[in-house]
Amino acid sequence: MALCDYRLCDQCNGKAFYDANLNYGEPSASSPWGLGSLGDWAVLCEECSKKWKCVVIPREEAGS
């Protein structure tokens, strides 16, 4: 399968999962790949998830 059909790991850029069948919606200025109502995401492959983890933290307010 072509590399462009996969969501790549945000750490090593290796294949994380096959995403060719996902519906990303129409592109917009805030999300050039579409992604519908998804605000943000991070993906780790199986190997990187052994050493790294994804966390959700609040954004700092502008001007702080």
Report the sheet with the most strands, covering strand number, pairing sense and barrel closure: 2 strands, antiparallel
Helix content: under 10%
Mean pLDDT: 79
Q: Classify the beta-strand content into a percent band.
A: 5-15%
Q: In which order are the strands of the major sheet placed?
A: 1-2
SS-derived structural category? little secondary structure
What is the terminal separation in angstroms? 45 Å
N to C succession of SSEs: EE
Strand segment count: 2
Return the domain count. Answer: 1
Low-confidence stretches: none
What is the global morphology?
flat
H/I helix tally: 0
- Cα radius of gyration in angstroms: 14 Å
What's the arrangement of secondary structure elements?
Elements: E1 6-8, E2 15-18
Antiparallel strand pairs: 1-2
Structural key phrases:
about 60 residues, little secondary structure, two-stranded antiparallel sheet, flat
What would you say this structure looks like, in words?
The protein has one domain (1-64). The protein has strands spanning 6-8, 15-18. The model has no long low-confidence stretch (mean pLDDT 79). It has no helices and two strands. It starts with 5 loop residues before the first strand and ends in a 46-residue tail after the last strand. It is mostly loops and 64 residues long. The chain has a two-stranded antiparallel ribbon with strand order 1-2. 0% of the residues lie in helices and 11% in strands.
